[in-house]
Amino acid sequence: MAFIKSLVLIIAIMALLSSMSLAFDPSPLQDFCVAVDDSKNAVFVNGKFCKDPKLVVADDFFKSGLDMPGNTSNKLGSAVTARNVDNLPGLNTLGISLARIDYAPYGLNPPHTHPRGTEVLAVLEGTLYVGFVLSNPGPNMKNKLFTKILHPGDVFVFPIGLIHFQFNVGKTKAVAFAGLSSQNPGVITIANAVFGSDPPINDDVLAKAFQIDKKVVDYLQSQFWWDNN
What's the 3-state SS for the chain? Predict the structure, then answer.
């Protein structure tokens, strides 16, 4: 019964996103697309090349596994199981994708952004504290934070490109499904990107940006930054 309810929520999310998708995915589907004069050397065409329609099969539109919990035994206590164009090729050009997110008690899906997609989150189990931060505040304004406590059946929207997070505030596990308005929304986890980039960002830059001592920057850059996506 619980899984049937989950499927109903997922279908509702995907139906909503299908109406939203035309507004986004005609724009870039990857971080960059370097032009080449010789098509023989091309690898991507702002996304993926298309399969010959005569060779398409039903399995191109099928992927199982979202009924299985993700492994939350990590530093963050969360796991994201994504279904996007990289593992479900039938999504190519359709402008939608999906993810299951599992949270251990007090598990966190840390502050991150999806540069190419709006996210709609539906809670199936547990209690989540969620929020996002606005960009470009006006003069003498701080970036405004919007937060909400979500329970099973609740839905919350994270606008495209804005920093957002989810935190399990309950003593039991939590499960949510997210729909995104892109076949390849991308994800930038803030702490990982800033302190775990390859190669590292110059510590003078980060020390000045965060107004902290360089030794603190060096310590943060030396840590292992867990990627739960």
Answer: CHHHHHHHHHHHHHHHHHHHHHHCCCCCCCCCCCCCCCHHHCCCCCCCCCCCHHHCCHHHHCCCCCCCCCCCCCCCCEEEEEECCCCCHHHCCCCCEEEEEEECCCCEEEEEECCCCCEEEEEEECCEEEEEECCCCCCCCCCCEEEEEECCCCEEEECCCCCEEEEECCCCCEEEEEEECCCCCCCEEHHHHHHCCCCCCCHHHHHHHHCCCHHHHHHHHHCCCCCCC
Q: What is the pTM of this model?
A: 0.86
Give ∠ CA 163-195-105 in degrees, rounded to 5: 60
Phi, psi of 99 (to 5 degrees): -150, 145
CA distance 188 to 101: 16
Question: Which amino acid is it at 75?
Answer: K
Instruction: Quote the pLDDT of residue 16.
Output: 58
pLDDT in tens, 100-112: 999 999 999 999 9
Using the structure block, give the residue that is written with the tokens 């999310």.
Answer: 13
Query: In Å, what is the CA distance from 103 to each residue of 7, 53, 93, 229?
Result: 19, 39, 31, 13
Which tokens is 176 given? 């949510």
